[in-house]
Design goal:
Two copies of one chain form a homodimer.
Chain A lengths: L4 H14 L8 E2 L1 H8 L3 H14 L2 E4 L3 E4 L4 H25 L2 H19 L3 H18 L3 H22 L4 H17 L3 H26 L5
Antiparallel strand pairs in A: 1-3, 2-3
Helix pairs in contact in A: 1-3, 2-3, 4-6, 4-7, 4-8, 4-9, 5-6, 5-8, 6-7, 7-9, 8-9
Chain A binds a DNA duplex through α3.
Chain lengths: 218, 218
DNA sequence: GTCAATATTATTGTATACAAAAGAAACCAT
DNA sequence: ATGGTTTCTTTTGTATACAATAATATTGAC
């Protein structure tokens, strides 16, 4: 159950930004949003403040808040950090993961594979999320886990795109398997380097995809 | 120049939490703060919302906001993440750092050493900050840089303590030197591992210090 | 006709007023 | 006296009113 209206509005606004209803650079008018959600400006302002902290919008003093989608460079940077963070999780998890979690990881990968075979995109997405979430948790560092979840969530809209590329899903699953094996062996360095590449390639694929769509950019 | 009153208040409140004026678990009353800063509740609430996002306070719905200092476990976790993040910066910087920045780093270390010799605690602190800031920047990833600055800032009140330990400053300087050399050699892995230990030890020292002060804890 | 200065409008930032919910206190019953 | 219930108070969350500033439009001068 959600807490206050402001939080609900923040989540809804986030969704509207993620799905492109509010385009990059667009100004978010407080009174319009207030009318849209049938509330006063106060909870809308709180929601916008939260989005500002999340980095989804930018707030120019006395001018308003504007949607701020990361550009190509920033996106590559964010994926690079995500890759490093997940590599850390993998390395730490190699020595800290529980047997239960290892089993869970194995089963999750199995379900993920099955979803790929069945062309079940949503299923694959769900199990893929679970795979990564398990590793965040098994880093044994809940602060690291929180940071990973935060950045993961922020990159989510960009993450789905690259998975549609031909052959990417199967390669991705092979990487998952390699990470699983490395963790079973307690080989932190291997787990880290495979994971780093696994995540970093997502950013690169996305970048290439963008570049092919907008050849004139930059 | 600061933007709105709410931001100024947020910064001031942060300082008051850092210096212990507001103790852990203490409730921050909106009307009291409003009177203290001679404003209405509105900017106070905005400031508190910002601190909530930063993690300095916790907001229980319909109950109020409470100062939330990290406990021993969380602090160790945060230092572990900081160590890993800085290790990443060092590794990336090894291949990306500019000659100018290398010179700057060298001079900063020299000034830092001089400050240690002169027992200039503030000077050492300042140059030490600069050393780390240079590496954040030379990671060549401004998103990573921002994340490092954020966590660094959050850990600042706990960082100063361990430096007062006997012999720690000299050892710290030796580590700085080792990192500098590794960067000159373009040896990313060495730079990363030295940096990781350099930062991680801060958390451990702090932990030991706390444990020695409160032997009954946990 | 164009540029600039001023007036008008619109929008953000802050203050206050109101509503709802949680906590405290008083009252009653056993 | 103690436990529970109910009222009252305190405090958060929301709505509205006001103030200040930036954007826009209008008007006047050249």
């Amino acid at each position: 159950m959600e807490r206050k209206r402001a939080d609900i509005i923040a989540d809804q606004l986030e969704g509207l930004i993620f799905d492109g209803t509010f385009a990059d650079g667009e100004r978010l008018d407080e009174v319009q949003l207030a009318k849209r959600f049938s509330v006063s400006r106060t909870p809308v302002r709180e929601a916008l403040l939260r989005l500002t902290q999340s980095g989804l919008v930018e707030q120019l003093p006395r001018r308003g808040v504007f949607v701020r989608q990361p550009g190509p460079v920033e996106l590559i940077e964010m994926f690079e950090v995500m890759a490093e963070l997940e590599a850390i999780c993998a390395r730490l998890a190699a020595s800290r993961i529980t047997d239960d979690a290892l089993r869970d990881l194995h089963e999750t990968n199995a379900r993920c594979n099955a979803a790929v075979e069945a062309q079940d995109s949503d299923g694959h997405f769900r199990e893929n999320e679970r795979f990564h979430a398990i590793l965040y948790r098994q880093s044994g560092n809940s602060f690291l886990q929180q940071e990973c979840l935060r950045l993961h969530h922020r990159l989510q809209p960009f993450r789905r795109v690259q998975l549609r590329l031909r052959g990417r899903m199967k390669q991705s699953m092979a990487e998952h398997k390699a990470i699983e094996v490395a963790l079973e062996d307690g080989d932190g360095e291997t787990a880290a380097s495979v994971m780093r590449a696994h995540v970093a390639v997502q950013g690169e694929k996305f970048h290439h995809l963008m570049a092919s769509l907008k050849p004139a950019a930059e």
